[in-house]
């Protein structure tokens, strides 16, 4: 099934058994083949690009070729497209999709995973961080697009005002770790930075719980599931305005700021110096994720999108 020939055979034989198709990827061989047979069998499909529409970062020319040969047809023939945010909705429009075929449905989160949260202090104890230290948490894959270099530079400016502070970097290397470690060495903040590597399950939750603030300083982020995880743990957030749900976070679960070192440094100072602000954002964050990003709510909206396609 996972070889190209096996995939084509399986799709050709099985696709006509379905009433509707949901494609969760834009630039892929699978999408090309599904599009071909969906059109042949007259089966409507919903396309969800999940942040992959812009031709940014790597392979920009190859992405353009794909779009000319297959991408624009994929979008044109979709009964509906699903955008995670208004930013992604605008990206669809820029590629020729009309407003009436765009549905904005955010990602959700399984709140059952957050019903029994760890006790405060477990992460600090394991990693020997004393209770008086403020923890600034970065939890994501370590890639330039996620902005860990911006955070490191902003964090370095805090040391003039904060002595008892720790930058905790959680996540797997995605090719940028050596560059980041060199930058941290140049900034002379090695003793203030902790790399834990990838954390799963309860270990990851302990990091959110013990953090004073969670920072996602991405250069581009169509959504950001970790923001929902932080919200569910009641951890206040700082996010750049290049994140698709920055407008939802700002003033509710935390602060949205420009992609700028000085702006990030100021936001960190403001939130770390104000216990009441952090507490207020933490409480609102839990409420926000339950009201807007509960999977049961998201599932209803996706189901409604399917019904619209089938009734066309």
From TrEMBL:
Q: Where is the Glycosyltransferase subfamily 4-like N-terminal domain?
A: 10-112
Give GO MF terms, alphabetically: glycosyltransferase activity
Origin organism is marine sediment metagenome
UniProt-recorded name of the protein = Glycosyltransferase subfamily 4-like N-terminal domain-containing protein
Taxonomically, what lineage is the organism?
Answer: unclassified sequences, metagenomes, ecological metagenomes
Report domain Glycosyl transferase family positions.
120-286
Looking up Pfam families in the UniProt record yields: Glyco_transf_4 (PF13439), Glycos_transf_1 (PF00534)
